[in-house]
Design goal:
The complex is a heterodimer of chains A (112) and B (136). Chain A is an all-alpha fold and 112 residues long. Chain A has eight helices and no strands. Chain A starts with a helix and ends with a helix. In chain B, helix 1 packs across helix 5. The N and C termini of chain B lie far apart (36 Å). Chain B is mostly helical and 136 residues long. Classes of the chains: A mainly alpha (112), B mainly alpha (136).
């Protein structure tokens, strides 16, 4: 893919990934076929800030984990009152990195 | 999610569950009050869908199925998970297999489908309404 297009993509979507992953994602995108551009540019990523807000407001019910696709962990939080409240608090700090990790996995799957 | 990470999380969660249950049992037998762990209840004074689960598990340990159901049906699921999961992890470790991880992945994939997700969400909402009605 064209480096300019990739850089514009990174500028627009960089917040969805961990900063240390961005260089790798950029390299992979540049190496990837142009035919993948349409697919990659239309991908929907989860916004870490939105998920954090959900985690603060409704993390006790596991809704934050459900939203990022961690269904099993979401059920665990739901059945245990947010892990007796402790998991709820831990996820206030862990949910944003977890969201970025999910976004990274998603884009990598489409760049294969 | 790698198998090792999943097994660590599940093992720690089950261990925490057993510790919490034993602490709760000891405190209750001495007539002491246990801390309120439900954030939702602390903020709104209303129970969450899982309130009453510890009591339900306690009733199940005493063989009171009806009281366990009335406290919170979640207790049945939580008790099963608390005992089956550590055993399953041990079997996988001994055999060098990842059957629990495979089953977990399949369960996640199935539950994401609308045919499972919608009825389960409705059941959770129903249980929650019942908790509020019971005044837990």
């Amino acid at each position: 893919m064209e480096a300019q297009k990739v850089d514009m993509f990174i500028m627009a979507n960089g917040k969805f990934f961990e900063s240390f992953e961005i260089a790798n994602i950029r390299d992979r995108m540049i190496e990837a076929n142009d035919s993948k551009w349409a697919q990659v540019s239309s991908l929907q990523f989860k916004d870490p800030t939105t998920i954090l807000i959900v985690s603060i407001l409704a993390g006790n019910f596991g809704i934050d984990r459900f939203m990022i696709g961690d269904t099993g962990l979401g059920i665990g939080k739901l059945l245990t009152c947010g892990g007796l409240g402790i998991w709820t608090i831990i996820d206030w700090f862990m949910i944003q990195p977890a969201t970025r990790e999910k976004n990274t996995i998603k884009i990598r799957q489409h760049l294969r | 999610m790698t198998p090792a990470r999943l097994y660590s999380i599940l093992f720690l969660a089950c261990l925490a569950g057993h510790v919490w249950f034993q602490y709760n049992r000891m405190a209750t037998s001495q007539g002491a009050k246990t801390p309120e762990v439900c954030m939702f209840k602390q903020l709104t004074d209303l129970p969450c869908p899982a309130c009453g689960t510890t009591r339900s598990v306690a009733h199940l340990h005493q063989g009171n199925l009806q009281l366990a159901w009335l406290s919170n049906p979640f207790g049945f699921l939580v008790l099963t998970i608390m005992y089956v999961t550590p055993l399953w992890i041990m079997v996988d470790r001994v055999k060098g297999s990842h059957t629990l991880w495979t089953a977990y992945q399949k369960m996640e994939a199935e539950l994401k489908k609308a045919s499972w997700a919608i009825p389960l969400v409705l059941l959770v909402l129903l249980n929650w309404s019942w908790n509020i009605y019971k005044g837990l």
